[in-house]
Amino acid sequence: MSRQTLVYLAGLVLLLVAPLLFYPVLVMKVLCFALFACAFNLLLGFTGLLSFGHAAFLGSAAYATGFAMTHWAVTPELGLIFGVAVSATLGAVFGAIAIRRQGIYFAMITLALAQMVFFFYLQAPFTGGEDGLQGVPRGKLFGIVPLAEDWAMYYFVAAVFVFGFWLIRRIIGSPFGQVLKAIRENEARALSLGYEVDRYKLLAFVLSAAIAGLAGSTKTLVLGFATLTDVHWATSGEVVLMTLVGGVGTVVGPVIGALVIVVLQNELADKAGPWVTVIMGTIFVACVLAFRRGIVGEIAARWPGKAGAPKQEHGPGH
Amino acid sequence: MDEIFGIPTQALLGQLLLGLVNGSFYAMLSLGLAVIFGLLNIVNFAHGALYMVGAYVAWMALEYFGLDYWWALVLAPLVVGAFGILIERLLLRWLYQLDHLYGLLLTFGVALILEGTYRYFFGVSGQPYPVPDALMGATDLGFMVLPNYRAWVVAASLAVCLVTWYVIERTRLGAYLRAATENPRLVQAFGVNVPLLVTLTYGFGVALAAFAGVLAAPIIQVTPLMGSNLIIIVFAVVVIGGMGSILGSIFTGLGLGVIEGLTKVFYPEASSTVVFVIMAIVLLLRPAGLFGREK
């Protein structure tokens, strides 16, 4: 058995027993953000596009699912599908605009578009303004399994996470994913080889937005609310940080990064107040200066496995 | 003539002036961003936070040392500029060989640190800052009443922007700067101290942000969050204008401020998003930006 298979098996076992060891809602929150970070990493790590507006997809799906569950009383799986559809559509619009510029401009454009979405939700009549959507019911899965019980909710979330993670792995490993990596390494060359770079980038963007939406919808089901925090630029920054801490361009990195950041925030929230922001900022600075490979990237570089972990010396855009 | 398109003239001109005031801030901040990006290839995410720090330097100078507005106008850019030089020497200079994205991420971290620190000490509620005595009141121009302080803000920032343009485009120092933007190695080979030029440029860029912060202090409440929302709009302004041209940044900043002000009159719901909508339209029609060059 390869090291990779062992790691995944261990992860799966941990996933199954985690609610016995830790507070299930916290684990579910970690899983949602882990999926969010994985979706983000599909763009940054595997296509070389830094989106600084991913909160728009997380938040839009969160609002969409919350609205559908509250006002239309649909079943959770339909709520998820609706949320994903909304975020994928938004992703197509964002993507079509943002891919017209490269590099640093791409980041600024996505940030600005996400801010526009933030103001939209701030004013829109159906989002509850500053309060957000509160008291979203979890409903019954397929109309049968009540998710109000935390254990049922947990295994549903775990299944969603495993599906999302598998999907991303599948995308990365596919010929399509190879082209994305080629674009990351050298866009001009990919173009000259005859690949329609913009179409690949757009599809990657939509996929990333859809999976980020899946994470946002699931989060709404778990926590029972969707608020402006979900669409705020600070959330877009957080997902960048999670990916950076875990390891940009590694498959498992974002999961580890999300775990570290969510648990850290959870621990610090009551004790540190505004210092949480300072600590996050410091981690950002430290990661960029001295720890660009992230946790998983660093491990892979020190103990190279047989499969040969992806090299991340230069990071995004190279 | 009391009404234009059914809007009272006074209200329309008032919003227009307010738009010009906001536009002056956009112009000064996007100018600083453009100058820094030109030489350092770093999009300075901390720009908004340093603008906030500039406003707080003014507030603290008055509160703790009794130094008035005019002192603050000189002190804040110096203090923040020195702080910027520190940031450049200690942090940014390690990133010049790396992808540009790392500069954005690092300065984002710096912005978070600054914002969190100020939130710890000052909370999120705003600190009022008085309008200086000399600029109190308003002048009646006949067709509108012009608040003196707002007129001063527009005039002062325009002056600063034009001086910056003059220095960069028309002086020897500016020639070095432009040359170093094009080809730093060659300029270094000619004996110009490029690393020093880079450090000073960053210091100057953030000093400009601090100056804008002091100008803004009497108009808006001084809060730790005043910079973060502004910087995102300024990013959009920079995308619209393109970072290639100094005058382009100034015009785009002012123009968008005015458009935003007019939107407040005719369709207030869209006033917070209109800049982003324009950005999207410009990207679809002219991806390089209005004054930009595709590199």
Description:
- Chain A has 318 residues and is an all-alpha fold.
- Chain A has a domain at 24-232.
- Chain A has helices spanning 3-21, 24-47, 55-72, 76-98, 103-123, 150-173, 175-185, 187-192, 197-223, 233-246, 253-272, 275-290, 294-302; strands at residues 140-141, 145-146.
- In chain A, strand 1 and strand 2 form a beta hairpin.
- Chain A is globular, with a radius of gyration of 19 Å.
- Chain A starts with a helix and ends in a 16-residue tail after the last helix.
- With 295 residues, chain B is mainly alpha-helical.
- Chain B has one domain.
- Chain B has helices spanning 9-40, 47-65, 69-90, 100-122, 148-170, 172-182, 184-189, 194-216, 226-241, 246-266, 274-285; strands at 3-4, 7-8, 138-140, 145-147.
- Chain B has a two-stranded antiparallel sheet. Chain B has a two-stranded antiparallel sheet with strand order 3-4.
- In chain B, strand 1 (3-4) and strand 2 (7-8) form a beta hairpin.
- In chain B, helix 2 (47-65) crosses helix 3 (69-90) and helix 2 (47-65) packs across helix 8 (194-216).
- Chain B starts with a strand and ends in a 10-residue tail after the last helix.
- The model of chain B has no long low-confidence stretch (mean pLDDT 91).
- The interface between A and B is large, with 47 and 44 residues.
